[in-house]
Task: structure prediction
Amino acid sequence: MTRTLKAEYLLKPDLVFLNHGSFGACPRPVFEVYQNWQRELELDPVSFIGRRLPSLLEEARGKLAAYLGVDSGEVVFFTNPTTAFNMALRSLNLNPGDEILTTTFEYPAMEQAWNYLAHKTGARYVHQPTPLPVASKEEFVEALWRGVNEKTRVIFLSHIAPFIALILPIEEICQRARAAGILTIIDGAHAPSQIPLNLAQVGADIYFGACHKWLSAPKGSGFLYARKEVQTWLEPLIISAGWVQEKPLPAPQAPDGRSWLVHFNEGQGTRDPSAFLSVPAAIEFQETRNWDAQRSRCRQLASETRQRIHAMTGLPVLCPDSTDFFRQMVSVVLPETDLGALGQRLYEEYHIIAPILVVNGFNLIRLSFQAYNDESDADAIVNALKTLL
Result:
């Protein structure tokens, strides 16, 4: 059996950490690379930022793009998915009555941003009811598509829904939206590394994600992918040295991708790029540790733990036990109880960290299994719930 990699992570040894999905956890070898980049920057700041940084960023971005299955001219670094998303959102040209279609279980930070834009432009942010529990991908696609009409301009979805932890059928939806002339924006915060990812096959117009979560890169490393066809209307949140105004257009054209890269990679003012430059080390860390086997082991833990808890409670599952619907992160339905007290006791009495949520009327505990988790962690949460519930 594939061994756990707990010794390679910096987590406290007495912690039963089942919440990798929130902020990730950086392994020691990657964190050391991150700190080395910070030291190199401070040894000669002017030379590092003024001379070396553009080529270093280009190399790191190229490795990330290859990992994501796209051209390096289609990916730029952002400090986190929220910032990347806000840039794309604020670049949209929406009119009163236009509609953005989404589900009823998206991430609150994204919900707030869409509500802000809808209020500002007069557009409507529409939550389309979709089945939960989910029986099939086809059922989900058809339910979502019933919300599409002649006013739909954008479809916004998570690739892996953050709280219910379900993999959504993004490829099918993006393909159908492209044929209908509808823009797709996908929140991929939980996808990179948790599932094999080829953004060229996914087919989204805009896709943003995190490197600090399942890829286990340092905090402050995220990205935005944009198809070349949509790059021309994307505007940076920060106007700085990288901006190139081309008359008479309101935003610069970037047919070769170069202006786009300057705007979003180099023209952002002074910042610490160490997290970006450490992303290749995170990719290499996983490549050299048989990550497919780690993913498979963690997926088995997630599946078995869900089965054990549901056998105890007798409650329904959110989806079939299929890799089409969940991998290393799974949400399990809990009975009626004081959820706040439950979470507090799990942490204080059992040193277990796992988010407890209410989504669409379901009480849920979300369990994340990463390369540092093993059967003892699964036993810990099952036994604790058996006592506390």
